[in-house]
Amino acid sequence: MAELLNKTEFAHLEDGRVYRVSRNAWSRSLEPSCFAKIVTGVVLIAVLVYFLFPIYWLIISSTKTNADLGDSNGLWFAHNAAAENYQKLMGTTNGHFWRWVANSVLYSTAAGAIGTLVSVMAGYGMAKFKFFGRNVLQLVVMAGLLLPIALLTIPLYIVMHSLGLTDTIWSIILPSCVSPFGVFLGRMYAQTSVPDELLEAARIDGAGESRIFFTMVLRLLAPAMVTIFLFIFVATWNNFLLPLMMVTNNEQLKPVTLGLYGMMSYFSPTYGAVLQGALFGVLPLMALFLFLQRYWQSGLAAGSVKG
């Protein structure tokens, strides 16, 4: 009887009266309508085309010459000049292109790892510790979300120049480690995912704050850490103005974004080679997103539901 009731019917109270409702009918009432499913499918397909079309066009255009880019069908291949464009890519960059890609990987990975740790430490501290000025500090972090990075580039250059760090890797990594959004996300996730009872039990057992954070809290904050790492990684990879200001005299320290800009500054650039370099430059980002996709999705939902 209990099994039958669990599968087919259930009861609930409303206005003091008991109703018996079929579970199958209740499930059907919660399903979206056929029209809603069709509209959702059409919108998702349109969004998919919107995001994948630039990549498709980039692949097509990277195999064309300058003449083909203007004369041929923009949505299909012409004469295959991929090998020629690659040779021009290497020749135009003096063989430094893959060095620039490696620099971007280094800068983005280092900034993402350091910035993620700093962000979750700051967010955890603001979420779980009561101290004087905590609310003011949270407002300052929120205000930092409103400041564009371009506004801070010149002050950062002055600071790095006074410290003698310009034309070094630290002039790009250190400013990129600070992420107000990462601190905000870390605080929101720590509030909902780190129970106070767990922290109190660990303290009663004699664990110090450092041990609690590095052995317990970091595991609970793993989804948020992946999301913060991705945001910092992408922001550092796509940053153009900061490397342009910081790296002026050392060709080998350029990231790929700055290197591609240098290729476009020539009098008569080979656009197919530049587009091929842009394609190679975006592949690491695509691979990283695909690899960390499921962790990123769970991290984006951090703090959305309070349980």
Automatic annotation (TrEMBL):
Residues 101-292 form the ABC transmembrane type-1 domain. GO terms for cellular component: plasma membrane. One of its GO terms (biological process) is transmembrane transport. The keyword Protein biosynthesis does not apply. It comes from the Bacteria. CDD domains: TM_PBP2. InterPro entries: MetI-like (IPR000515), MetI-like_sf (IPR035906). The keyword Transmembrane helix applies. Keywords: Cell membrane, Membrane, Transmembrane, Transmembrane helix, Transport. The chain crosses the membrane at residues 38-59, 105-124, 136-157, 169-190, 211-237, 271-292. SUPFAM superfamilies: MetI-like. It is found in: Cell membrane. Its main location: membrane. It is a multi-pass membrane protein. PANTHER family: ABC TRANSPORTER PERMEASE PROTEIN MG189-RELATED, ABC TRANSPORTER PERMEASE PROTEIN MG189-RELATED-RELATED. Belongs to the binding-protein-dependent transport system permease family. This is ABC transmembrane type-1 domain-containing protein.
